[in-house]
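Quick question, first post here. What does this chain look like in 3D?
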Amino acid sequence: MTTEKQIAANRENARLSTGPRTEAGKAAPSTNAVKHGLTGRFVILPGQQEAFDELEAGLRGSLLPSGRFRNSSSAEPSPPPGTSTAAKKPRPTAIASCANLDSIPW
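> Answer (accepted):
Ran it through. Tokens below.
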């Protein structure tokens, strides 16, 4: 059980722990959870705007949807990368191999 002395000490410590107050103090921990920095606030160095714009355009372009579903309403999935799109024999499935249910002895 917490004693009155511990509660008083916690309250006194809490009065002193108010976090950063100045802009400089707030800026320091603002990047604590940054993983890669590509989507947060940052400064582009003078003379680097063109290089940054090229990098951004390349990254955004590589993240665009591609394949059959990009502009299509087709319900068929795209073939895996590196595979031929030539017609292939359908693989038998449990349902396909049990197509004639009347022949199964129940």
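The chain has a mean pLDDT of 74.
DSSP finds four helices and no strands in the chain.
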